[in-house]
Request: fold
Amino acid sequence: MILGRKPVKRYLVAALVAALAAAAVSATTATAAAETTYTLVEATSGNVLGATRSGNDPAMTVDPYTGDRRQLWRVVDLGDGFRRIVNDGNGKSLSTVDGGSGDGAVVHLWDYLGSYPDQQWRIDDAGGGTVTVANRGTGGRLLSTKDGSTAAGTEARLWSRTTGRAGQTWKLVPTALVREVVVHADDVVGQVPRTHVAAGLEDVNHEVYGGIYSQLVFGEAFAEPAYDAGVSGMWRATSTGGARGEYALDTTSPFKGGQSQRIRFATGTGTVGVENRGLNRQGIGLVAGKPYEGTIALRTDRPVGVALQNGDGSRTYARTAISPSGNGWRTSTFTLTPTTTDAHARLVVELAGPGTADVGYVFLEPGAWGRFQGQHVRKDVADAMVRQGLKAIRFGGCANSGCGDVSEYRWKAMIGDPVRRPVTKGFWYPYESNGWGVFEFLRLGEAMGIEAVPSLNIDETPQDVADLLQYLYGPAGSIWGARRVADGHPAPYAVRRLQLGNENAVDEAYWRKFKALADVVWSYDPTIRLVVGDFSYSDVITDPFHFTGGGKVDTLAAHQKILDLSKAYGAVVDFDIHLWTQQTDGVESQIRALDSYVDQLGRISPGADYHVVVFELNADRHDLARALANAYAINALQRRPKVDVVSSANALQVDGQNDNGWNQGLVFLNQNQVWGQPPYYVHRMKAASWQPGVARTDVTGGDGLFNVTALVSADGNGLSVDVVNATAEPLTYTLRLDGFRADTAAVSTLDGRPNAVNTAGNPENVVPHDSTAQLTGGTALTYTFPANSYTSLRLRG
Reply:
């Protein structure tokens, strides 16, 4: 075979013949597995061309060969002396940016488009077992390295043939892909906290009201605008017999907020009132024979009936009468025990005779039987979170900062009797009555035995933060400590981490606000860890004071001031970075950007004690593809010693009630059912595989969609190997153990269609399945990891 006009070396001829044969095979078969793969080796340095760098459509670079599929290439004959050069890692073709053909054109990968000359290459013998690779574009310029450098990391460019210039000659070397994972169990390179299994809560898509909060009434304070004339929006007028009612919203002297509900029995016989069917009127879930406890605020001199009924009111399951005494607003408690189980019931407040009643607040929740450890929390929801294996939860997000007007989000609105707490404007829902807020969240963490991190509005005043510290930690005899005791929490709270803001631009304005609050906190107790509400970084940072891809900032100047301040107090400071895990492709580049961010923080303030927390793994899906992206991110972050918490958003989602977008709940629920989505099971598997030590692991034959993390127990007798294969093909690897022996591995695998989810009708459509695998000689295992899978192997020595 002749390339150009010169004969090539025997091995090169054989290689290209094999390439052409492989191309012919691939045209008639469904798989390219039989195709020969090559490394393109820069002749003087031995570095190979590959697509291993981060960023969107990154330039090709030369680097040492690591067995990564993205460093392997297939050569496809186009029949006219030119070839496609196809990356084995992603199937894209070697191309130039925007089809450029001049000197300096950047070489990258792109989908093959068929007729564009920048995607076609001529391979010519250059003597001594080397070749040149010429682009078909104008001038026939050569695949070259930038500026003639051959050092690792140098980008590829087109350049005119230049005598004596390095980086223009290559060796095309047939290279078989070896897929192997070697775990050096006796070489512990880091420690991983349990808090890498965590979830975030805020009242987005009704995670709180209608979600974890045991309150069954939605619209409890009658704050919503009228839907029916004179009736608050989450309620409807109801009547029986020939009775006629009149309704109005009292804005003159409401119980709280801007309005209360007025009911007037005008004429006739029967009853008139208002009814509520829970969140977005989906229906209230009831269990027969179980007590439900309630509170109601009334202003009336007439008896008021409270009842549980079926959806159309034709059947009454339980009823009681309340007769307030005295003038003005009075609160009363009641208990109702329904006779029938019903997922779509309603609560009715009614008058049975002439008169007027003003209703200011209604609360209904299951008795102790349906609440988690005495909290105002749905037991079935919290039980699912416990089974999830969570070790930390975070309360906050756009609800408290970074996304819009949250001026009324203040911790002082969330203390005292929930009945009397103010109605405030929320980011996700405009009528927050604050019955379940920061301190109910902290109590949930206490009840679950895990860390709970609240996120505060960065615009809290220094005095309010000083009051908060006393409320959290002060003695019972202090002003705010006494308020805590009165609120039912005699002992100080144990929370040791407080976030200031969320997804803020960490700039000079943020720095000034942070410093004002941090001076208060760290003067009180420098062991409290403050968390900076940072955002996201997509590009590798090489200059800390001038970069791209920083979301809302392009400099770490404010970060430097924060680090210096923490150093002056001898405090530890955390920085919250959010990652996008919509799909696995793209996570690796974000991790590299995070690595550079962590490195630059250490450079700009030497000696500062800092960590990174990832409080939000975000997506807009809750299927298996998102689960694999989460697993990949957690895997990678477990190998980063500076990363202290990894939390996935959102902890919860009410099925069919997605009012705010962000279709990413881990636990789904409706009125009477709770089930996990695929990302939920990633957490369960991660919790089960946790060990404290990170073992050094070498992977050959992988790519950006294959990721391995190995964890070892403190005594060296337990080993977990967690593997993500987010490719569309099963991959067979040989696992070799160094410094560890085991006969059997317990295997858990989560796999399926990328878009597969769990539903109320099929809640176990995608769940882990368990098996065992036998090792050869106690140290080797050849295992096929399914396509689109997360696999956890657990071994005991």
In short: The CA atoms of residues 200 and 649 lie 5 Å apart. The radius of gyration is 32 Å. Residues 1-34 have pLDDT under 50 and may be disordered.
